[in-house]
Amino acid sequence: KVLNADPSLTNISVSQMDNNSICECPVCTALSAKEESQGSPHLALVNAVAKSIAVSHPGVKIGTLAYWYSRKPPKYMTMLPNVQIMLCSIECCTFHPLDDPSCGRNKLFCEDLYKWKEICQNILIWNYDTNFAAYDLPFPNFNTIAKNVQLFQNNNVQGVFMEAAGNGLSTEMSDLRNYVMARCLWSPMLESWELVDEFCHLHYGSSAPPILAYLRFLHHNAEERGVHPNCFPKPVEVGLDLEVSQQIYSYFQKALQLAPDEITRLRVEKATIPALRALLSTAPIIYRQGFYKYDIDIVGEETFSHYESLVKKFSMERVAAEKLASVYVDELHALKKGLPAVVLE
User: Fold this and answer.
1) What is the pLDDT of residue 276?
2) How far apart are CA 110 and CA 116, in angstroms?
3) Most Cβ neighbours (<10 Å): which of 22, 25, 248, 278?
4) Number of CB atoms found within 10 A of residue 59's CB
């Protein structure tokens, strides 16, 4: 009915829900066991739909996710020529390139990619390029953007969706990240860090050197600490602690001092939000006189007001995929004032 209503459509989705509710009936369970993939019953359905649509609507592709429980390809089944798989990398490490042999989490994804291209002619990728748990927390993934796109280019992938903070503005280095992602998708052989240098010099002018120093420091620190963050990492999982956060903030203080004009200063202020979030996320929270609260001597009163003012100034609606910035700011005020607490043995 959908295809008949819009003859211009070239593909349509027949996909799973965003949960882990697989069918456990005897028939589906047996097929999953035979194919060694829990997504096999759904793929059988997709093949059946594709077979029918190939007759009624030639040229239309039937798309489906290979996501979460369905990411692993079936052992024996092959997909019909008009089936389109969108392979998702949500379990993967975002700091290391997907084809980095030293990263065990990513190694498994590549094994699946190589198998999928043997059994499916049409592969798309859904890749993740933000921290969905904290949009404005420093996120070291500029090592991976270009290399991942090149991996897809070299393995018969026909299209890539790079999901960043799609429902939030003024998120961590969002202008820079959007630029690098767009350029790499358009020209897959470009290198991430060359684009980072290009954008920063053009966008931040004389304030670029300390911002570039911050980005290099952030990635070097993550490498030194041996982290393997996914796309929902906690501060420690991207290598942050209070000392690192204080160093990060110092880079942006220097960048603000170097800003030659008001436009550049506004751009640097916007980029400073993640440095403040890092301080707030790694500052110690202590028990004192019956309350659980920030150690204000360390975090500093001005950090709260500065963060809140920049969030409002640059219309940052969300701090996470599922949390409004206004809610997080209220939480900060509560922790600054102190939450009633008890000590348990």
Assistant:
1) 97
2) 10
3) 278
4) 9
